[in-house]
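Structure tokens please, single chain.
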Amino acid sequence: MRVGVPKEIKNHEYRVGLTPPAAAELVAAGHEVVVETGAGTGIDFDDGAYEAVGAHILPDARAVFGASDMIVKVKEPQQSEIALLEPRHLLFTYLHLAADKPQAEGLMRSGATCIAYETVTAPGGGLPLLKPMSEVAGRMSVQVGAHYLEKEQGGRGVLLGGVPGVAPAKVAILGGGISGINAAQMAVGMRADVTIYDVNLSRLAELDMFFSSQIKTAYASKAAVAAAVERAHLVIGAVLVPGAAAPKLVTREMLKTMKRGSVLVDIAIDQGGCFETSHPTTHDDPVFEVEGVIHYCVANMPGAVARTSTFALNNATLPFAVQLANNGAEAAMRANPHLAAGLNVSDGKIRHRAVAEALDLPFEAWSA
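Here you go.
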């Protein structure tokens, strides 16, 4: 199969779909890999690093799409990239369609087969291709939250961990999944006062055992979330409904109860965000203020730590990319139902029920 790797063009996105070592695996398996010039420079891999493992360098995205059967990316295709997709293409990347109807409709019009990293499943449960970026975003959320709590950044002027004689900041983490647990680990390490909220009692029990007395846990009733928001200096939104839009857990009215200069970090922004007042921001302009509360809603948070993120992502995606290249999309999905769960769009139809419901579009299951 001919596998193409275009340069990412989303704002301040430095990750790349395949590192040279990952490209080498595909070349060794007998596939042709083409890479857009400069695609790896954001993580310090020049064109020569790809050529050294047998990949070919092409001058632009149009050439890469034209020469490829499968396109491997990181972020959802932008409109200029969707225009390059054809029915013969297999697109393998993050899509996050539930919050992006124009993208979904564009992919439907292209006729391409589109497999989303974020809905591929694992035999034991979970989302293995979302996990590494959830880990990165969870850890980053505390870093950026601590930064924007600084007075110079417009924050309340609170040190996350406090000092002897001065209480630490209160951190409320909404969602006890992969992002939430990684956020908690970082916040605990910085000596904050941490509470994780979730509606899954079994998960809360697991978190209680994992962290012992280092954190508190609470059932995420509406009243509990409202009380948490009122008390917290930093609220991290880390909820996930696979394939679907994130639920709005924090309302504008709740913000009015918060301390001026408090910070919200919305990790769920790729899926529409879990705060009513959220809207996507960029690394160029990452925050905005509503009711005196700072909102950080960057839709590609892990892009800021591109090298760590790219290697973590490739570790997870490469085995699936090899399956797709070796067997083709249909055969690979027939052989691996967990990979088939990643199918979001094909033949002009929405193939993932949660995506269709979120976008109010017709759903038609893919038949193996």
